Amino acid sequence: MPAAGAEQVVEWLQRALERNPPALSEHESKRVLAAYGVPVVQEELARDAAEAVQAAERLGYPVAAKACSPNLMHKSDRGLVFLNLGDASAVKSAVTEITRAAGRTPLDGYVIQRMVGGKREVIVGGTRDRLFGPCVMLGLGGILVEAVADVTFRLAPVEERDALEMVNELRAQRIFGAFRGEPPVNREALSRVLIAVGRMLVDHARIMQVDVNPLIFRGGEPVAVDALITLTAD
Hints:
By secondary structure, the protein is of the alpha+beta class. The protein is 32% helix and 27% strand.
């Protein structure tokens, strides 16, 4: 983990532990991932529609707009995610709709995120199993993760050899080669993401679960587009 981020991560986690339930928002979760060296999508947290438009113009269209709150774990199901927004008017409308759909759920703001294009995606997860302890998971990502049980696990901490073995164990791992005009996936970069998630679980006993879904490959490079970190208060 980059030394510059260590104290900041501890502060973010401590602040999250004071909540009920103890969890990080999507934006906070990705800041923790970035502190551990995981490539994350470019995004900004806006407080209102005006700031959302300013953020979109800095990031460059098209953008995504999402509700941001540690109390929201399945935002798409509630109409709290808008993709491929092409101009200021679309961003303003998205913020209005998100506010309406959120109802009484308190929001930290609105995540304005640069759209990431890629034909391949995986899910990277971490969990604290009661029997085995901290484990890291790699599987086919996106909406197919629940329909196609193509996953592999390792106990944390994960070494480079373990991470590369995980990539090779997936039945669909041939998508990591040259695929539909996309270059081969940088397997070493993907392995570093798996190592980082394992390191997070080892470093912080209060982290219960890490969910990076999807991790999209932009060209051959992995980028975390959505993430959630939940904590245990015990």
